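Amino acid chain:
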Amino acid sequence: MRRSIDDSSDDHPIDEERPAVSWMVGLSDDPDASDDGSPRVSVTLEEAGRAGFGVVAQLAPDTARRMRAAIAAALREIGEDPGQ
């Protein structure tokens, strides 16, 4: 099973030193993505227009929650509501 949850691109001004980056969050039950074959949250980052050349992180539920908490903390640090 592979399922895309959301995808978009980053928000910085694009220039030669900082190309646009695409991100995607999804689900995967790829047996090679975990030791026990359990489903993973996948996070993909790649340069826009270069599909297949990015980096994919296969996150266990605890690791995905840790990433979510880190993003929420970063949002609070810049004075933004982290949402749900």
